Amino acid sequence: MSETPVPMSAAEIAQAVSNRKITALAATEAALARIAAHDKVLNAFTDVTADRARARASAVDAAIAAGQPVGPLAGVPFAVKNLFDVQGLPTRAGSKINRDLPPSPRDATLIERMEAAGAVLVGALNMGEYAYDFTGENVHDGPSRNPHDPARMTGGSSGGSGSAVGGALVPIALGSDTNGSIRVPSSFCGTFGLKPTYGRLSRARSYPFVASLDHLGPLARSVKDLALAYDAMQGPDADDPACIVQSVEPTVPLLANDIGGLRVAIAGGYFQQNLFPEAAEAVARVAKALGAARIVELPEAARARAAAYIITTTEGAALHLDRLRKRPNDFDPAVRDRLIAGAMIPAVYVDKAQKFRRWYRAKVMELFQSVDVILAPATPCTAPKIGQASFTLDGVELPVRANIGIHTQPISFIGLPVVAVPVPLEPLPIGVQIIAAPWREDGALRVAYALEQMGVAAAPAPRGL
Predict the structure, then answer these.
(1) pLDDT reading at 112 higher than 60
(2) Mean pLDDT of all residues in 437-458
(3) H/E element holding 124?
(4) Catalytic annotation present for 212
(5) Is the pLDDT of residue 402 over 50?
(6) Which of 117, 213, 350, 423 could form a disulfide with 71 if both were Cys (CB 3.0 to 4.6 A apart)?
(7) Percent of the chain at pLDDT above 70?
(8) Concatenated DSSP letters for 370-435?
(9) Which of the residues 157, 163, 187, 222 is marked catalytic?
(10) 355 noted as active-site residue
């Protein structure tokens, strides 16, 4: 298939709107037109908030006409995973049950902050049910589809976010990442994605999955756009008790800083196993470009993944227990069965998983005394076919859904910041994780920006539209 032309980046839109070369309303109408033209294929959106978007864009244009400041995202269209509260919509979280909820009275904090920076919300995005998914397949809304091959998965659970950005419907989308749900769609759909440090960005007025593992963050087609969104969303928020009380630490001004002084290592052992050749090739390309040769071992990474599973399924089951009792047939059967299994895990296993989590975090923190950034695969493969149930890793046939996140789970388990960068291999892109120490999103973003400038990382134009 031929490539679809890519519209302006968020940074370019904001500059053009601020300089009155285009209007925010024109940028919004262009995004709405792209959604109307291509979402029939991608199935990324579950709700398009066209009237709200036009009103917001007109307000941005009026502010510019009055000489008022409009923010660094002036007129930039964006969309959010449908677990974010959007005023006037029920927060469906990919489920059938939540559609019975009343409309949200207020936007999520991160939507408010994006719009305070001048951005324009154009809709809510498809996702795996209750965020318990790595595929992007939703039994209620249909699967979101990969913009480079619509027969393939987007990855999940932020599948609509990956599809909308990878397909250039919007330059920025917001998603959530519990065990890899920003990084996996970024890898499959060829976008940049940021999972910030746990507690860095507010989760207020978003539908939870696993409170001790949930992160919210942006996906974008460029590192600068990713950083613009991240900077706009920073800051403490009393409405999220896990959100740190820390001043905003802008990253956009630091992106072009030389990375020569950063110590870059490659994750070895566990992270060099269970890979298809394309995943190994992507990491090798990134490592070569950065001159990285040192190998570091994240201790007991396989055990960390197992512990993450236990915490995920037991916390998720506790959250949904009442719904499981009252409306079991309204769940995706695959999600329902995993949650029921989680409800039956003995408490002693959960206790052991949490104790191990503390030990593992301390050991990984020791690594960051001698390195600044660690490279690892984001997914073991490029996007599988929609409906594909299994693949073969290291000679063993394994279920796809459970093993797509094999390399992301040991990282989010202890809340580390990660930028997923897309490596544009043929015929499909695949992501590499740029992992940094807590609160050092700036370092991961600087490395991602350098890779983008070198042409090693890039969001490819969509081919499947």
Answers:
(1) yes
(2) 98
(3) strand 120-125
(4) no
(5) yes
(6) 117
(7) 99
(8) T-SEEEEESSSSSPPBTT--EEEETTEEEEHHHHTTTTTHHHHTTT--EEEEEE--SSS-EEEEEE
(9) 157
(10) no
Tokens of 33: 């037109």
Give the C-alpha separation, 201 to 251, whole Å. 14
By mean pLDDT, which of 52-61, 129-138, 355-364, 391-400 is the weakest? 391-400
Query: What span, in angstroms and rounded, lies between the C-alpha atoms of 303 and 360?
Result: 9
Catalytic residue among 158, 161, 163, 181: 181
CB atoms inside a 10 Å sphere around CB 245: 9
Contacts of 241 (CB under 8 A, 6+ apart): none
With residues binned 3-state (H G I as helix, E B as strand, rest as coil), the percentages for the chain, rounded to 5, are 40, 15, 45
Contact 146, 383 (CB under 8 A): yes
Is the model's pTM score more than 0.70? yes
Check if 181 is active-site.
Answer: yes
How sure is the predictor about 417, in pLDDT bands with cuts at 50, 70 and 90? very high
**Cis check: omega of the bond before 236, within 30 degrees of 0:** no
Q: Which of 81, 158, 222, 224 is catalytic?
A: 81
Q: Kindly state the helix (H) or strand (E) to which residue 46 belongs, with its residue range.
A: strand 45-48
- pLDDT band at residue 1 under the 50/70/90 scheme: very low
**What are the backbone angles phi and psi of residue 396, rounded to the nearest 5°?**
-115, 130
The widest CA-to-CA distance across the chain, in whole angstroms, is 65
